[in-house]
């Protein structure tokens, strides 16, 4: 049998075999993480299962149109003491991406790992990891079909949101015929593509614009104009009265500049902690660069978190990026 098919069957069995689940995605969740986690929740509800769906922190309110958004438990505000025997993790490349959720696993817990990151380290007891999938939501669609789940508008909306956001609105190179086929199917259940795109891709907060205005002043070309980078400091956040999620998407301004091969954003989320996002055109596999710095991701979109000042983080990234790019820093 096709090994992929067998893994999908095993995942579907996992949903059926257990009764109470912990459902989680990654820290600073995006549309795929949130859509997939809530998609899992809707599947569990259909199967008559119990669940708790958590994230280490807050989920961006831009996703509050998703069904069961109010069930997402922010563990920083509402800690849990319960330990779980069955866990479903979505869109997490490794356990460190879960943040402070790992302590809720009972010892010997059964863990289903559904993910599409090539850097996934197979932390589950059941691993359904497909790097060729555009989004974790794409894989979840297959599991739902296999498990005989009835699709409806709510489930379709969750899966569609994951597909839409991880393909950048069906524009990135991970947009395959299969993605379009699934998306088309999901529309037949009543998903309104204009409304989802408006919420996920078009609408921005005023705080985002204020952060963007400051960040663009730091935009710099380096490495023979092959790298563009942008920085946001904790002071920028304070002055723009912005939240961490308001700094999302800045890295695209870097990568989109004509001739640039790698765009990098350095976002100081708290003093001494810098979240690095990388986006590549063709020449560099940025997942390998991020991995060397303790992070991960995809060939064209990756990230890591580096300790130190923004200047120190920059130096660490350049040290790994330069050999990958074959060009030295020339500022
Ligand atoms: P971001 O730059 O945060 O939008 O992330 C780009 C891609 O890299 C996404 O697929 C993330 O899931 C992945 N990613 C970001 N940060 C990390 C990390 N620290 N470890 C593993 N994967 C990451
Ligand atoms: Mn994600
Ligand atoms: Mn994803």
Low-confidence stretches: none
What integer is the average pLDDT?
A: 97
What is the count of structural domains?
Answer: 2
Element string (H = helix, E = strand): HEHEEEEEHHHHHEEHHEEHEEH
What is the count of DSSP helices, taking H or I runs of 4+ residues? 11
Can you identify the CATH superfamily of the largest domain? inorganic pyrophosphatase (n-terminal core)
Tell me the β content: 15-25%
Please give the number of β-strands: 12
Query: How much is the radius of gyration in Å?
Result: 20 Å
Largest sheet: 6 strands, parallel
Ligands present: adenosine monophosphate, manganese (II) ion
- For this structure, what is the CATH class of the largest domain? Alpha Beta
GO molecular function, one term: nucleic acid binding
Protein name: Bifunctional oligoribonuclease/PAP phosphatase NrnA
Domain DDH: 21-162
Domain DHHA1: 234-320
